[in-house]
Amino acid sequence: MKKIGLRIFSGRNVYTHRSAALVLLDLGELTGKESREIPGFNERLLNILPGLMSHGCATGDADGFVQRLQAGTYFGHILEHVLLELQGQLGLVSKYGKTRATDQWGVYEVIFECHCSGLAERLVDTGLDLLHSILARREYNLAAALASLERNLAQVDLGPSSKALWEAARRRGISVRRIGEGSLIQLGSGRYTRRIQATLTDHTSCLAADVAGDKALTKLILKAAAIPVPRGRVVRSVNEALNVWRELKCPVVLKPCDGNQGRGVSLNLNSEDDVVHGFAIASRFSPYVLLEEFIAGKHFRLLVVNDRLVAASERIPAHVVGNGRDTVVALIEEVNQDPLRGNEHEKPLTKITLDDIAKLVLARQGYDLLSIPAPGSIVWLRENANLSTGGTAMDVTDLVHPELAQTVVRAVRLIGLDVAGVDLVTADVGLPIAWGRGAIIEVNAAPGIRMHHFPMEGPERDVASQIIESLYPVGAPSEIPIVAVTGTNGKTTTCRLVAHVLRQCYGMVGLTSTAGIYHNDRLLVAGDTTGPWSARVLLDDPEVEVAVLELARGGLLRGGLAYDRCDVAILTNISEDHLGQDNLDCMEDLAWVKSLVLESVRTDGYVIMNADDECSMDLMPQQHAQAILFSLQPDNLQVRRHLGIGGRAVLVQEGHICLVEGDRCKTLVAVAEIPITFGGSASYNVANVLAACAALWGLRVEEDLLRQGLVTFLPDTKHNPGRQNLFSIGRHSVLVDYAHNVAGIQGLTQLARNLTKGELIGVIAAPGNRRTATVFNVGQAAGLGFDKLFIKEDRDRKGRAPGEVADILRQGALAVGLAAEAVQVFLEERTALWAAFAAAQPDDLIVVLYEDLSYTMSLLTELACEAQSVHKSYVVAGGL
């Protein structure tokens, strides 16, 4: 049993609407074996992971998984539950799991909920190692395995402050995405995108952060503004430090001038030895050392967000309490066992570290590491109170004097920060600060917020929500409008039409499609860009004001969705295509994949559904958003029922596109005025127009703009390249299209019949990765639709042998009665095109189905040069 692949879903996917991972598992020699067939396996598994006894399963019972083990279940399913249980042992709530067979013998897909993608691979390896140990009857050290996973989790997961910000944003409905492996988080989408790293926001100026990072410069600015700060100055040598200490004639503090998190800070130094030692420690972190007077009093951290004090904590330095039995080292080890303590910033509190500063502080109290303090005695290990050096905090927000709050806010404003943590020493925060009675020690950019969310005493303060509100005030938008389009046929044309209309409403429209990623008409990336990566290119771009996303089966299966919620989702239709791929065996499987897009619509958004397509309408009862139906049949029963309850629909009535809501009907535009419908002859494009109108209606686009967009969208290489593009090449007419399945070819040949007085000549191919039966059906559709066929093969045969696909197409065409002499096979596209042109008469129409549009167009250009004439045009049905 081994892992042969791992896929991460960072958001909604076809399996679950939560983050998940999919491991491709080869069971090897365990293929077909059940748990009950291996003596003692179930008992050993439950002994190591007793939590599995409370796992529900398909039975719905609390011990459903145990029942499955006893009855016999396969090892992919067992691994699924082991992975969920291991996460539970780490304190991660993960409930969803699913195991699916693939079309490869012994290979299974194991899907499991996983909120920390960086942990997934180590988790799978641990789960497999556990099962292999049980099967081999080896001892398994679960505690060591969990400790290793916990260390890995601490390395790859967000820290408490970043998690608090993430959760605050999600509570507001703001989309959140982690960038890289650090703490950089992206909020919102498109033009509303914001970024935050820890508590450093994209509002924080680099200059202000630099000023705050220079402690001496900060003091200079605050002192000039009459705000109390400690006396002192920057020193660069131990002799200079001693001279300044003598000048001040008081206990002093030594710290790196540009340090943070309490590193290298020594307090209350009042002897030559102390100053020498303190300088040595501080100079390890910076050549510039700040020496300043020691201010006696309590240590406080006040958090300011957008010129408002939002929280205050009294910070208590790291310490232990003696019990009369244990040494200082043992007491520290006991404190560090607290599950709330971790390394650095991974948990609400930080473990106490024994370093030179701690030893110095101990020595000044008369202790060393092996001392045994008396019962109840407090042994300080730091004099500075940073949480990052093991300190704790107590909330005092409600005790802060209003004048003190004003002084702190003013200090932050002087430095220029939007979010700042102000370190203050005073006897009582309930009194105003004044010279000789406390001082502001530091103003910190990117302050930690653990102490406010996880105080040891006092109420928690949800400061993360305050920071998020500073970026997105209540009522402010965080997401650009998103139109998601899926289905079997018509996706690309519908996307292009929607984007074309939206360009009249927005300055920058982002579009992904089978042709590439676009900013308005500018192509950014060429190719089939219908997956989550291409969608993210647009959603991460602050220039984009609205996004139209084509979402195909492959991208949905392999990567899920790039967004959390969309405003409008269009399902054009569901027909036979791609069956036999990605373990999709029937129409219901295709519908299951497409339904993900509909399920992602906001509750106040719209799903756009084809009332003429039975498979699509089977999904209607599952929808939570409002539906707008579209239909070519004004008396469609589904539409009538929907309108009867006050719903919306877009229909064709008496040759016009109509927007209908309940019993109210608005006529929008005549079908004949819309170029891509070819006067109504292209019924499938009429359906695409209806779908686009429904989506734009759902987005509240003004009717005049909608009408203008429809009549200016042409079936040419500028507006809709590769879709019903009609050319005159010499004495021949050529129609170029991408139809590649039965429904597509049926619709295209119906249109083509209306565009010619002569014969219909098809230059066709079919993708090699379709089922043989599907390719045969395509051949039948072509045999029924065309008078003559010139069969070629795609250059990428998708694993098929040369001539294999062409022969299947030929057999399909012959099976429906097309004469053998009317079917010719030329495997190379160039040869097939030249043969078709040679056979065509002036009144005939040559229909070319392409694999690669640019290659096909280059061949047509070559033919045009030979004919010494090229004329591009679009037509209304009936004439050339």
Describe the structure.
Strand 28 (601-610), helix 20 (614-617) and strand 29 (626-631) form a beta-alpha-beta unit. The strands form eight sheets. An eleven-stranded mixed beta sheet has the order 25-24-23-26-22-27-28-29-30-31-32, sandwiched between helices. 48% of the residues are buried. 34% of the residues lie in helices and 23% in strands. It is elongated. Mean pLDDT is 92; it is low at 869-880. The protein folds into four domains: 2-156, no CATH class; 208-471, 2-Layer Sandwich (D-amino Acid Aminotransferase, Chain A, domain 1); 482-711, UDP-N-acetylmuramoyl-L-alanine:D-glutamate ligase, CATH 3.40.1190.10; 725-872, Protein-Tyrosine Phosphatase, Chain A. The protein has 28 helices and 39 strands. By secondary structure, it is of the alpha/beta class. It starts with a strand and ends in an 8-residue tail after the last strand. The longest helix has 16 residues, at 120-135.
- Oligomer state equals single chain
Regions with little confidence, pLDDT below 50 for 5+ residues: 869-880
Count of folded domains: 4
Name the overall outline: elongated
What's the helix count? 28
Rg of Cα set:
35 Å
Topology of helices and strands:
Blueprint: E1 2-9, E2 20-26, H1 41-48, H2 64-71, H3 75-89, E3 97-101, E4 107-113, H4 120-135, H5 142-156, H6 160-171, E5 176-178, E6 184-187, E7 194-197, E8 200-201, H7 206-213, H8 215-224, E9 232-235, H9 238-248, E10 252-256, E11 266-269, H10 272-282, E12 289-293, E13 298-305, E14 309-316, E15 319-321, H11 328-336, E16 341-342, E17 349-350, H12 356-364, E18 378-380, E19 392-395, H13 402-415, E20 419-426, E21 439-445, H14 450-453, H15 463-471, E22 482-486, H16 491-502, E23 509-513, E24 516-519, E25 522-526, H17 532-539, E26 546-550, H18 553-559, E27 566-571, H19 587-599, E28 601-610, H20 614-617, E29 626-631, H21 637-644, E30 648-653, E31 656-661, E32 664-670, H22 683-698, H23 703-711, E33 725-729, E34 732-737, H24 742-753, E35 760-764, H25 772-785, E36 788-791, H26 804-815, E37 823-825, H27 829-839, E38 845-849, H28 853-867, E39 870-872
Parallel strand pairs: 16-17, 22-26, 22-27, 23-26, 27-28, 28-29, 29-30, 34-38, 35-36, 35-38, 36-37
Antiparallel strand pairs: 1-2, 2-4, 3-4, 5-6, 6-7, 7-8, 9-12, 10-11, 10-12, 13-14, 13-20, 14-19, 15-18, 20-21, 23-24, 24-25, 30-31, 31-32, 33-34, 33-39
